[in-house]
Amino acid sequence: MNDSSLISEVCTDEILNNVARKVQISQRITNEEAIYLYEHGSLGFLGSLANLIRERKHGDKTYFNRNFHIEPTNICVYSCSFCSYSRLIKKREEGWEYTDEQIMDIVRTYDNKEVTEVHIVGGVLPQYDLKFYTDLFKKIKAHRPELHIKALTPVEFHYIFKKAKMSYEEGMKAILDSGVDSLPGGGAEMFDEEIREKIAGGKCSSDEWLRIHEIWHELGKRSNATMLYGHIETFAHRVDHMDRLRQLQDKTKGFQTFIPLKFRNKDNEMSHLPESSIVEDLRNYAIARIYLDNFDHIKAYWPMLGRHNAQLALQFGVDDIDGTIDDSTKIYSMAGSEEQSPSLNTEELVQLIKTVNRKAIERDSIYNELKDYTDVVFDNAKALRYYSLPIN
Predict the structure, then answer these.
(1) What residues does CATH 3.20.20.70 cover in the chain?
(2) Which is it for the CA torsion 51, 52, 58, 60, positive or negative?
(3) Domain 60-342 maps to which CATH number in 3.30.1050.10, 3.90.1200.10, 3.20.20.70, 3.40.50.12640?
(4) Which residue has the higher pLDDT, 324 or 252?
(5) Tell me: the pLDDT tens digits for 120-146?
(6) pTM
(7) Radius of gyration over alpha carbons of the chain, in Å?
(8) Which of 41, 106, 109, 276 has the lowest tally of Cβ within 10 angstroms?
């Protein structure tokens, strides 16, 4: 669809018409316009605008990396109503608590594999303190210096630094010095204070989450950002959440990618709530791409969304689908996602991208391009069996 057809389709709606014109000239939309998109924008209209922005920034490129996850524990001092993953200390027999040596054993299992990133997040417990993590990160770097460590969220940092009686500034410097290369985007949930208190009471506040990322950016490092959507929030809450991220990004330019995370309702205190539909998921990705003009990338986390829905998202502003994962995360499989064993090898992930006529680009953790798979042909029946979804 060309730029002029975007206007002709919505000429009867002045606000949508104005949003389309703003997108064409790369002008920022307002919060009020973003809310209006949620309330009145059709899937086709939003997808067309988001795809225009996506292709303006990245063409047909879709990024992925070779990564694995380590979750040190699912036992947690916090009890978030949306969480199906964690277990309280009084139910620790239902979970796991790895020692540093057990974590290093996991790292060693990847010694002969071409992974470039280890992603480390988990529950919050007293024994997982600053010394535990800084010693662990140093051990990982000593063992495999080139492995990018993406680790811990402000929820974990807030608890760790408070226990260590140090400031955020001191704590983040210690984390940097121990070998952490970037931060994941977890723990953001929803920034609206009333909503946050209801679904994640007791954890770090919205301002504290943002401040920790700001300090990390001031140290010259990069991070990601998330938003948990599809529960008790309104469209205005989603826009407020993205507005706070957009404002911080204007200030620091340290965020790499925005990752909308879909609320899943299996085995948690919010199981009575229905999950958002795939149509609403795609609309949310598209609006995020339109609104967050200062974010380079929008990611669909395929273990959460499912591989086929992640393919669909590539037509609605998404240009990244995360990595190979290698069945090393339980956060969404325990919450009822389509991916109960989230594992894709490189061939499978490339095929997933190519099937929907996008270019598969392997990246490192800070989006340096490592390999273009456009002309790479795999003879792999396993890779082909998943991806028969045709999208023109």
Answers:
(1) 60-342
(2) positive
(3) 3.20.20.70
(4) 252
(5) 998 888 899 999 999 999 999 999 999
(6) 0.88
(7) 20
(8) 109
